[in-house]
TrEMBL record:
It comes from the Bacteria. Residues 223-316 form the Peptidase M20 dimerisation domain. Keywords: Hydrolase, Signal. Residues 1-23 form the signal peptide. One of its GO terms (biological process) is diaminopimelate biosynthetic process. GO terms for molecular function: N-acetyldiaminopimelate deacetylase activity. Pfam families: M20_dimer, Peptidase_M20. It comes from Massilia forsythiae. This is Amidohydrolase.
Length: 440
């Protein structure tokens, strides 16, 4: 019989507490080097922040990281999965460990007021002019990635193995990891034994290293539904079949899949984010289109919920006497992120040695999605995603006392508390890599 999640987490916390006193600190030379490197890291951050690029169009972003990786002695290959790249540092026998950063920004107009705020606009895939901003912190991730890459390259004598650093395009569309894998990421290059990535977090004090064992980030799929009716005059609805009414019923029926058909211990979120139909008040249209976001943790729940959405759509159309069945199209997104509990315990212990036990905390799972999950789906690869708090502690405490929410990721006002966040992220990333790599 498997132990309960609560019992497993209790064991994990107890193990971390016992290990904290024995966690190896980050070597003193690394800390001094990080202090010396910080101005260049901050300069890179501000440059990346001011010049964001959308997914699969991160040409200049990738070039900036590639130039720096090559200067550090990494063997770099570009154009993987589009604008992605791989930087390899072979340093003797040992495991292959991968550290990923994302390259892309969001179609958001920045409103932070920072002196280096983005003013970029560009054409999206549909040809529309949109603003662009690093509203999810990928610029911070890239800066930490570079700081860690430099520490590891400058201290080759301290570890043995193969360090594989990747710049991944288009995480925000949850298709960048898939593109790199399809382009031979784990066949043209060494398949990693371990894969690591960090993400900034808007709910915890800056510099806090956050972990969660087991299912951590949800799978994500988009479902597009076209409901068909029979158009007509709004004054004689009995002569038509109103797809707006069918769609309205469907919106409510779909929520019962969560409240009445799903085990409440298996989280599911279904969000109907878009509904479009009709042109004016006195015309009944002949179709309505809906777009849904579906998030789950378990593959079997994911499969059942997607099938049930299609069933509900057919049922509502049948009940209303629609002229034909709705068109239900599923756009597969990404799988859920799973953090191996034993490896999480090891990584948390390494992070404690780097930043101090008081700065390493367990966090709850999140229903947001991350295509970093795709790497852990590959046989033989253990992948770990950690978070790092990115909000000034005083500001966060004041907001909580006032009951006022602060801007989070994907907000036009999102601006991480950079220095303490990136510093602890680099320390934790480096300590984890050193823990996974044998000493020379």
């Amino acid at each position: 019989m498997k132990p309960s999640r609560i019992f497993r987490n209790s064991l994990l916390l107890a193990g971390l507490a016992a290990a904290a006193a024995h966690a190896a600190p980050l070597p003193a030379p690394f800390a001094a080097q990080l202090n010396a490197n910080y101005p260049a890291i901050e300069t890179l951050y501000q440059d990346l922040h001011s010049h964001p690029e959308l997914g699969f169009d991160e040409h200049q972003t990738a070039a900036k990281l590639v130039e720096r990786a090559r200067a550090l002695g990494y063997d770099v290959t570009t154009g993987i999965g589009g604008t992605g790249f791989v930087a390899i540092l072979r340093n003797g026998p040992g495991p292959t460990v991968m550290l990923r950063t994302e390259l892309d920004a969001l179609p958001v107009q920045e409103k932070t007021g920072l002196p280096f705020a983005s003013k970029v606009t560009t054409k999206n895939a549909a040809g529309e002019t949109v603003p662009v901003a690093h509203a999810c912190g990928h610029d911070l991730h890239m800066s930490a990635w570079y700081g860690t890459a430099k520490l590891m390259a400058d201290n080759r004598k301290a570890w043995s193995g193969t360090l594989m650093l990747i710049g991944q395009p288009s995480e925000e569309t949850v298709h960048g990891a898939e593109a790199m894998l399809k382009d031979g990421l784990f066949t043209r290059f060494p398949k990693p034994d371990y894969a690591l990535s960090f993400h900034d977090d808007a709910t915890m004090p800056s510099g806090t290293i956050l972990y969660h064992a087991g299912p951590f980030r949800a799978s994500s799929d988009v479902v597009n539904i076209t409901v068909f009716g029979q158009g007509g005059h709004g004054a004689v609805p009995h002569e038509a079949r109103d797809p707006i009414v069918i769609a309205a019923r469907l919106v409510m029926a779909i929520q019962t899949l969560v409240s009445r058909e799903n085990n409440p211990l298996d989280p599911v979120v279904i969000t109907i984010g878009s509904i479009h139909g009709g042109t004016q008040a006195n015309i009944i249209p002949d179709q309505v289109k809906l777009s849904l976001s579906v998030r789950t943790f378990k593959p079997e729940v994911r499969k059942r919920v997607l099938a049930s959405i299609a069933r509900e759509a057919r049922g509502e159309a049948l009940a209303a006497g629609a002229p034909k069945e709705p068109l239900v199209q599923v756009e597969p997104g990404t799988d859920s992120v799973y953090n191996d509990p034993a490896l999480i315990e090891r990584m948390a212990k390494a992070a404690q040695g780097a930043v101090g036990p008081e700065w390493v905390k367990e966090m709850p799972a999140k229903m947001t999605s991350e295509d970093f999950s795709q790497y852990g789906q590959q046989p033989g690869v253990k992948a770990i995603l950690l978070h790092v708090g990115a909000v000034d502690a005083g500001r966060l405490d004041a907001a909580r006392k006032a009951g006022q929410p602060l801007p989070g990721t994907h907000s036009p006002q999102w601006a991480p508390d950079f220095k303490p966040t990136v510093t602890n992220a680099i320390k934790a990333e480096t300590a984890i890599l050193l823990d996974l790599m044998p000493k020379k």
